[in-house]
Specification:
Helices cover 33% and strands 23% of the residues. Strand 1, helix 4 and strand 2 (77-81) form a beta-alpha-beta unit. It has a 6-stranded antiparallel β-sheet, with helices on one face. It has 3 domains: 2-81, Rossmann fold (3-Layer(aba) Sandwich); 83-113, no CATH class; 115-240, Riboflavin kinase-like (Elongation Factor Tu (Ef-tu), domain 3). By secondary structure, it is an alpha+beta fold. Helix 5 (93-101) runs antiparallel to helix 6.
């Protein structure tokens, strides 16, 4: 999400972040017009740094070679950055998404340089988790699709000085509601406090299982208890054998 990207940029030595709304008008600009109107007239570009596979302009026909040639005429320099390779694989959003879809959170974390996370503000839910004995902190996923789905061992940042361990479900709760609303519901282990309205970050560490429809609340409650035990085992093992990122 855009907010998460801006938050990450704010942690770096970046003075300003400019965001262009990707309208039909912007998408239809020929690359030469984009260079003249945006880079030269609007921004007064002196030096431009891009990725080595960067494409821009209508039908993505603009590339590094065109920028280099046009920059020489307009008075700005252009540099490209090489692709990042890990174990011979080029790091890309596609590769990260494939790892997340496969439930390989270790590979996703290696490619990202940190655990995959979702940020948002905790909202009021239907209190169904509380009725089952497992209150949850709910984040509404404002998207139609998500690369992670199922039940996970997670940690939540933003409520205390240290990350809080928990169990999270990402999906549409087929046993209790089965609608199309995507929610991230996190039950925090051994935590009791006021959560609503807090902005938090949920980091995903281990996939425990896929989301399933159960015959009723009793069967779901029993499964959640098993999920909590599995999450506790995971975090206990991580304490005994901490990863380099811990």
């Amino acid at each position: 999400r855009l907010r998460e990207k801006v938050d990450r940029l704010s942690e770096l030595p970046v003075d300003h972040t400019l965001i262009l709304r990707f309208t039909q008008g912007l998408a239809s600009l020929p690359p030469e017009t984009f260079i003249e109107k945006i880079l030269v007239q609007a921004l007064g570009t002196r030096h431009l740094v891009i990725g080595d596979d960067f494409r821009f302009g209508h039908r993505r026909v603009g590339d590094f070679a065109l920028l280099k040639a046009q920059g020489a005429l307009a008075g700005f320099e252009v540099s490209d950055t090489p692709s990042v390779l890990i174990d011979g694989l080029r790091v890309s959003s596609t590769l990260i998404r494939e790892a997340l879809l496969a439930g390989d959170l270790d590979q996703a974390a290696q490619l990202l340089g940190k655990p995959y996370e979702v940020c948002g503000r905790i909202i009021h839910g239907a209190k169904r988790g509380r009725a089952l004995g497992f209150p949850t902190a709910n984040l509404l996923l404002q998207r139609k699709n998500t690369p992670v789905r199922g039940v996970f061992a997670v940690t939540m940042r933003g409520l205390s000085e240290s990350p809080l361990p928990g169990v999270a479900n990402v999906g549409n709760r087929p046993t209790l509601s089965g609608d199309d609303t995507l929610l991230l519901e996190t039950h925090l282990l051994d935590f009791d406090g006021d959560l609503y309205g807090k902005r938090v970050e949920v980091e995903f560490h281990q996939k425990l299982r896929d989301e399933h429809r159960y015959p009723g609340p009793d069967e779901l409650r029993a499964q959640i208890e098993r999920d909590i035990m599995a999450a506790r085992d995971f975090f206990a093992g991580r304490q005994n054998h901490p990863s380099p990122e811990s």
